[in-house]
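Deviation from plan, reported transparently: 2-acetamido-2-deoxy-beta-D-glucopyranose complex.
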Amino acid sequence: MVKQTVKMDCLYQCLLAFVIVGVGTAMDLDVTPRITIPYSELVDVNRFINTAVSNVTMLLEDDAGILYVGARGAIFSLNARNITDGTNKTLNWEASPDKQKACEIKGRNNKTECFNHIRFLQRFNETHLYVCGTFAFSPLCGHIDIKTFHLTSISEGKEKCPFDPSLGYTGVLVDGKMYTATEYEFQSTADIRLAQEQRLLKTEDSHNLWLVDAKFVGSALIQESVNSLVGDDDKIYFFFTEGVKEKYTEHEKPRVSRVARVCKGDVGGQRILQKKWTSFLKARIICSIPEFVFYFDILTSTFVLDRGSWQTSVFYGTFTSQWKNVEASAICRYSLADIQSVFEGPYMEYMEDIHKWTKYEGELPSPRPGLCITNELRMKGQNTSKDLPDKVLGFQKLHPLMYDEVKPIEDRPLLLKKNALYTRIAVDQVMALDGQEYDVMFIGTDDGYIHKAVVMSPKVHIIEEVQLFRSPEPVEKLVISKKQKSLYIGSLSGVVQIPLSNCSRYITCYDCILARDPYCGWNGDACIEISSVENRTLMVQDIVKGSTGCSNSTVRVPIIQKVKTVQQGADIMLFCDIDSNLASTKWQVNNTELNIMQQNYKVGTDGLLILNSLLSHTGNYSCYKEENGVQSLVAVYAVSILMELPTDEVEKPSSTPLPSPTNPESWHVVKAEVVYIAAIIILGGVCVVLMSVLFYVACLQNKTGKYHLNTPSGVELQTVSGSCGSRKAESNQEYADGFLQIIPGEAVSGPSNRDLNSPVRQLPPPPPVPPPLPTEFTNGITTLPSMLKKMNGNTYMLLRQNDEASSPLYHSFTEELSKILEKRKHTQLVEKPDESSV
Ligand SMILES: *[C@@H]1O[C@H](CO)[C@@H](O)[C@H](O)[C@H]1NC(C)=O
Ligand SMILES: *[C@@H]1O[C@H](CO)[C@@H](O)[C@H](O)[C@H]1NC(C)=O
Ligand SMILES: *[C@@H]1O[C@H](CO)[C@@H](O)[C@H](O)[C@H]1NC(C)=O
Ligand SMILES: *[C@@H]1O[C@H](CO)[C@@H](O)[C@H](O)[C@H]1NC(C)=O
Ligand SMILES: *[C@@H]1O[C@H](CO)[C@@H](O)[C@H](O)[C@H]1NC(C)=O
Ligand SMILES: *[C@@H]1O[C@H](CO)[C@@H](O)[C@H](O)[C@H]1NC(C)=O
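Because the crystal trials were delayed, the predicted structure below was used instead.
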């Protein structure tokens, strides 16, 4: 059959680790979200929280502006504009007490399972919706009159809806007929069904050839009859994962992802395949990194992007690996045309004696098995599938699997992400200022994040990651409303509504351009939604390069110099807070580039740490950020180190504004001094609170961060915030146990109490001169901060080593990184993976 995947978990992990660390030239193997929006910074969020909500189904009627939500024992009708505006209607549909009792007697959990979980909710006709619920392990379906929002009829649902609320389930309603796929009865095997009044169509399961322990993920109706030259039928596509029927070793149960399809007009066979599909065909879908034979085999969700006609439709899929110890996700997309050509290609045949699928090389009966009824067949008098010859149906019964595999567009994943499990995807098409349509993907994770990413074939840029919930919970459903410009997220705790874009987050022209958000453009004064503007001729946007269009922009910020005065020997933290995870920082002292190989300097992603300061460290320090070829000044510090400090002064930040920078690319908002000082006070307070919380949390659990970094040498960066209880006095800035420490992010303004144990005097500001743009990133330690941030996702980290600057751990770590960087420079993709790993 299909190429066998790697056999040993360890090899997989090593391979992926190698792939992700060692290569980067051909494809970004771990795309980093540009900005991270934590829960606390979410704006314009509406949360529909209801105890009945769990395992939601959602149906958006964009024209009517209604979002229907199926939950536990209830269906809600919400105002799509604002789901929490209080105008929602509720239809209660609880499981009856006797069914609940029966469910309990069957040994089911009366706290989770013995309810009426709504699993299906779709439009039936102009006046009614169709709904199915598990009804305490005794499924029922019904019609809902939209006007009165009441159930008008209730009928048996056991051929349409699973009994178990947790089972994978998908279905579509076409012309009043329901095509569904799930495991229907208790402990039965999975099946694809068409449930009608008289007749039930099913998959043929006698030999386990059609479906092997299938878990269904998605389905879609594709109207292939529209403008079809051969009079083809509409088809329903199903996406799922299933077990492999081939025998490998004893313990292995590999799974693969599949697409299957049936014809809408299929009525089953006359003698053979009676009440069975005569048009069921399936094929493997591949999502892999071709150079490494690494397969993302577990499909977790699909999205069909209708681009106006079925011929141009594409399917998006989110995948993870089936090996539990590889936490990584991939997104692949497929064209319908590619899927169709696989279904028109050669068949596989199962060889019972050797337990293997092999290519079928023999003769094919006519008409071709698995086809829908077309004009040509109708002309021969074969009006329905019942008229098909026995030998065609006999062949179809034994050959449901296609030989070719469905490969992604451009033969590789669109996006790879380490340390994330993607659970859901929805895609919007956005017309950008350049006249191009861009696909914008909204991807949900199993820990409650949304990644928003723009596809610029073949690359993908993750614009942002948004934390939706205070405590992690999986994203289960995603629905986009173009009309409301909203994204609705269904999860265990309820439905969340967020705007598709929040352009006003970007304050300067470069902010707006660097974001590369197709929804946003710069109008000369602000970053705004381009759809809200009639005349766009003066707007700028740069999706492809993310760097041009701002040369005339006049929004500038005078950078405010901060003054730090400390006694020699103290440690000094100079913050340089940059919001973008893709930017790197660069430090200058006395207008020359900082020699960060010097032992006392430690550069982290948040700032510069001067350890054990000497008198000679006095000077003017400036921090620049560099992103996508755009450089700007972020912070300026006047640092003076004194032999001894005067005792009667208190720390006081300078508020002397610098003259507007000469660098045309320096940009930031003008802030009033008052605001600035107030911000310092507030942020200082916040910082202290944050520190206490961090230490408290660190005591509760060893790590607080979401991301880990494993370097090949086994050196591990942990996002620990310090040790519990054993931390020495703050004035000494000593950490008892840390070779790596996190110092929580702080705002631009912040000389914090932690950094100074001494008073401050105001010093005159130096005129900042921007350093030349680096023509090339060297592989030395200079790129360490950006490397770290990149590899580590987006944890704001600051490296802090032991007081012994020559700590062997520190050295092995930096050496390791240098080696990796060196490798990245010189090695191309390895052509073939190690034979032993395949
Ligand atoms: C939605 O409505 C609620 C209640 O009226 C209101 O508090 C909230 O601000 C509204 N949300 C938005 C984004 O307008
Ligand atoms: C569920 O079952 C347990 C044990 O049979 C019983 O004590 C409990 O009251 C039941 N809960 C409900 C909500 O029926
Ligand atoms: C829609 O379907 C319902 C239920 O079968 C039926 O009562 C109603 O008359 C139908 N409405 C229209 C407009 O066909
Ligand atoms: C097929 O349909 C055509 C036209 O509707 C009809 O004339 C013919 O008898 C049908 N053939 C069979 C085998 O039912
Ligand atoms: C910038 O200004 C120059 C001269 O005023 C003008 O020619 C140019 O078109 C402007 N560029 C943009 C991107 O607005
Ligand atoms: C910066 O310049 C001052 C005097 O102008 C000097 O004392 C100091 O050592 C310099 N700092 C560094 C780090 O070179």
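Residues 480 and 487 are 5 Å apart (CA to CA). We consider this an acceptable substitute for the interim report.
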